Amino acid sequence: MSEWYMEYEIEVNRPGLLGEISSLLGLLRVNIVTINGVDQGRRGMLLRTENDDAIERFELIASTMDMINVRKLRHPKLRDVLAVRHGRYIQRDADDKKTFRFVRDELGILVDFMAEIFKQEGHKLIGVRGMPRVGKTESVVAASVSANKKWIFLSSTMLRQTVRSQLAGDEFSADNVFILDGIVTRKASDERHMQLVREIMRLPAIKVVEHPDMFVRLSEYTMDDFDYIIEIRRDEDEEITYEILEKNDRMSSRSGMDFGFNI
């Protein structure tokens, strides 16, 4: 069976409209999997059918109806699935289509979004931008749990500063989610750490880089290598700047409170 996403705008809202649409789809042997409002005045449906011709017939019939205006009818994209599941579309950058924006209050849909990416097979490089304590690492870990994936920190400051120089056993599995902090990796002096990062980058697995802009500054990688960029803010107006992050890092190093260790 093939899956479809339909989104329609309600032109004339009257009682029984949804029932009529559902009945028409039923007559065409098109099953409604999920339905939800996805925007003001719009509904989204995930559909399933054994005959794609039925979708074409529905589109033709719907074009003659004055009550609705079908805006989208296509095989579902990830954003479509999440829109129906959560009742709205996630925010996408108008200029950079691979950049998605969230605020801290939307961590639930963010975790769901990343979990769906993590379930995909093969290489995926994801960058996560955000100021300290906005929920970057926590969201990645929660998404890994939701996707039933084991997560491996290559570098991190979640509990204490960690810089891995080697992995062991099943830690090299392509089924894992590999997480690194771009700032910590950038300042790491251990060449073995960078060699490990290169090995993981060649692995057909999910890689998540926090602070990707800092990561690419002193590495052979560029922002073009990233498949997704996720930005997390406390509110929509918060500016993501690395000046504060670098200042905090220098103060931490001078105060001797780093407690970093290599593994």
Summary?
Residues 70-253 form the DUF3388 domain. This is DUF3388 domain-containing protein. This protein is an alpha/beta fold and 263 residues long.
Percent of residues in β-strands = 25-35%
Class from helix and strand fractions: alpha/beta
Strand order of the largest sheet: 5-6-13-7-12-11-8
Number of strands: 14
The radius of gyration computed from the alpha-carbon positions, rounded to a whole number of angstroms, is 23 Å
Helix content: 25-40%
Give the N-to-C terminal Cα separation.
49 Å
Residue-averaged pLDDT: 90
The profile of the biggest β sheet is: 7 strands, mixed
**Please, how many helices?**
9
Q: What's the SSE pattern?
A: EHEEHEHEEHEHEEEEHHEHEHE
Q: What shape does the CA trace take?
A: elongated
Organism: Bhargavaea changchunensis
Protein name: DUF3388 domain-containing protein
